[in-house]
Amino acid sequence: MFIHLFLLILFIPQFQSLKVIQTSYGKLRGITVWSNDKNHRYMFKSVPFAKPPVGNLRFAKPQNPESWSGILDASKYSPACMSNSSSTSTPQKHYSEDCLYINIFTSEKCLNSKCPVIVYFHGGAYNLDSAIMFNDTFILDRYAAEDVVFVIPAVRLGVFGQLYFGPSDLLSENLFLYDAVQALSFVHSEINYFGGDSKRVTAMGHSSGGTIVDALGFSKLIDPGVKLFQQMIVLSATGMFGFYDMVVDNSFAIVEKFGCYNGTKDDRPNANIAEMLDCMRQIDGREMLLMQRHMEEVDDRDFRSVLRGAPFLESNGKIADLKKSPPSRNLLYGTTEHEFRNVDHMNPYISGIFLDFDNPVAVARYYDEQLMANLETMINGDAAAIFICASTFSTAMANTGADVYLFETRQKPYSFHVSDMQYFVGIHREIYHRPDMDILDTFYSKLLVNFTKMGVPSPEWAPLDPERMNYLELKVDSDMKEGPVMLEGFHEKEMELWFGEMMEFDRNVTKIRQSQGLPPEHLDIETQLKYWETTNKPEILTKTTKGFTSIHQDNNSNTVTTTASAQSSLLKNGSSILKQWWFYLIIFLMILLVVLIVICLRKPKREEELPLLS
Ligand SMILES: *[C@@H]1O[C@H](CO)[C@@H](O)[C@H](O)[C@H]1NC(C)=O
Ligand SMILES: *[C@@H]1O[C@H](CO)[C@@H](O)[C@H](O)[C@H]1NC(C)=O
Ligand SMILES: *[C@@H]1O[C@H](CO)[C@@H](O)[C@H](O)[C@H]1NC(C)=O
Ligand SMILES: *[C@@H]1O[C@H](CO)[C@@H](O)[C@H](O)[C@H]1NC(C)=O
Ligand SMILES: *[C@@H]1O[C@H](CO)[C@@H](O)[C@H](O)[C@H]1NC(C)=O
Ligand SMILES: *[C@@H]1O[C@H](CO)[C@@H](O)[C@H](O)[C@H]1NC(C)=O
């Protein structure tokens, strides 16, 4: 009986202890997760990589953190960056403006002999999700235990990272990209204290995080000497770059709502940016967040853009120029088969451009008209952007002589935009989970680990030859006895369409506008809304399903209505009970009760036996 109790105590989880390390800023106390193989794992959470961007530092570029004395607690996650939107199925519960922290997963082996590093930029349209929402166990098992240090930084989201009024020394576009660069610089100077090798850093990103990695990694301004990071992993990068006019328009709109600007639209170029910033820094952060949400729902104004400008490109630079002779880095580039195909995802305006069209609204409308007529064979523009982006960025990098590995996940029954996250960060596991998916799960993250360590995901995987556009089709189908296979001609059909007919249409529109003496399209929200109103807006182009909510259709035509993320939050709720101390107390008391009952039941038995013996 006592052995049982002893075992029970032994197996109470949270069997973790604390681990103290030194950085150049001060000491940190992280968590040890004991392991049978003696290669214990460590987590250092909420490590500050910048001064808190609050008060006068709100809307300022990130600055190096202050040193601290004593030991900083790095055992718990900091709050997420500010986000509150109806268009996510993974809302963050605890958020704060003070969010520029980095989370580091490492191991005993790495602390003793430096390991290569992955710095992972999360997705969420630069507006949602966080650096604290992934699966710790998964990351420790799949990366730290495999001798890779895994790092997840936060960047400011929404208006907090995107407010912009036009060229000025006082406020730069893309503040959140400066956060990303700050995080990479911090990793460069500090990761050796956590067992990482600063000369073997792979920047990785999913969705909008993938676009962050494309922007930084292809930039000739950020890290031309390839010192901050040496390799890239880009997964389902959205490829869309936003419009200056729209971001400036949205920024003035929110400033006006708080009474920090009272001028007319025409006065805007003369607006006093210092005064506006000063005024906006007095506003309560939560109020600003609620206003952002209000604007999103009522005015159709989103802060979800990365602009083609600082710090990675000259202002309003061309995407084609970004792709021209980038610093050479090995690159692993992936997409999923269906991406946004399940999302009737059309805002009344378009979210950005992925090729340098002069008339992006006209082009988007032309494309969507064709799409409506060919829903079976064509994909929506946002999905097309992902495939074109994958094809063009990977080709551009291969042309520098780097090794590029292109792949597409085509796991049945479906592979949508977030379907593959279960294989690389351990969230969004599907309800309709098939055994084949578990098989894929045994090696998907190993491909990333192999690439991070050796620059080669798998010995059988040939690097991209732009002539053939060869890529790995990643899937497991036991019934058909099929596994991953190399194919050629990555999204040839979409490439032909966009670089052929769509480009031609764009040139035609430019010619027509020029002949009528019209200026180029002005891309603020009002112009776009007007544009859609005056055209025959097809049924599907209503803004019913914004963002990433999705209805998954499996192959038996069962409609799986919850989103992948909603499923994962169900799972999270399910497991959170395991983290409550009272849960174990109840189990302990129940076992005690059972033990007592067993003892009580035994006694009469002996008494019955007595007469027989006598
Ligand atoms: C998010 O915004 C909604 C609508 O304004 C509000 O009701 C809700 O309390 C906010 N959520 C959080 C977690 O602040
Ligand atoms: C996290 O990952 C572990 C290990 O891969 C898995 O067993 C667990 O179910 C995952 N947890 C959640 C909430 O998905
Ligand atoms: C704008 O107008 C409001 C209301 O009249 C006023 O309170 C505020 O000070 C003005 N702001 C600026 C920047 O002039
Ligand atoms: C659904 O099943 C059919 C027939 O078995 C197959 O041809 C098709 O590719 C499947 N579709 C998906 C999305 O798995
Ligand atoms: C990872 O690389 C090793 C060494 O080249 C190889 O044996 C292994 O098969 C690779 N893993 C996968 C999943 O391809
Ligand atoms: C572009 O204009 C030419 C000449 O008017 C026309 O033949 C062609 O079909 C147009 N292309 C597209 C894609 O609209």
Outline the secondary-structure elements.
Layout: H1 2-10, E1 16-22, E2 27-33, E3 41-48, E4 71-73, E5 101-107, H2 108-112, E6 115-121, H3 136-142, E7 149-153, H4 159-162, H5 175-190, E8 196-206, H6 208-218, E9 231-235, H7 244-257, H8 273-280, H9 285-298, H10 319-323, E10 330-336, H11 360-373, H12 381-398, E11 404-409, H13 421-424, H14 435-454, E12 471-474, E13 485-487, H15 492-515, H16 525-533, E14 552-553, E15 559-560, H17 564-576, H18 581-613
Parallel strand pairs: 2-4, 6-7, 6-8, 8-9, 9-10, 10-11, 11-12
Antiparallel strand pairs: 1-2, 2-3, 3-5, 5-7, 12-13, 14-15
Bound molecules: 2-acetamido-2-deoxy-beta-D-glucopyranose (NAG) (6 copies).
The site of one 2-acetamido-2-deoxy-beta-D-glucopyranose (NAG) has 3 residues, from α9.
Task: Explain what the structure shows.
This is Carboxylesterase type B domain-containing protein. One of its GO terms (biological process) is ascaroside biosynthetic process. Keywords: Membrane, Signal, Transmembrane, Transmembrane helix. Helices cover 37% and strands 14% of the residues. It is built from 18 helices and 15 strands.
How would you summarize what this structure contains?
By secondary structure, the protein is α/β, with parallel strands linked by helices.
Ions, cofactors and other ligands present here are: 2-acetamido-2-deoxy-beta-D-glucopyranose
User: What's the CATH class label of the domain at 21-327?
Assistant: Alpha Beta
Using only CA atoms, what is the Rg? 27 Å
Strand count, sense and closure of the main sheet? 13 strands, mixed
Percent of sequence in beta strands: 5-15%
User: How many helices does DSSP assign?
Assistant: 18
Organism: Caenorhabditis elegans
InterPro entries: AB_hydrolase_fold (IPR029058), CarbesteraseB (IPR002018)
Pfam family, one: COesterase
Transmembrane segments: 581-601
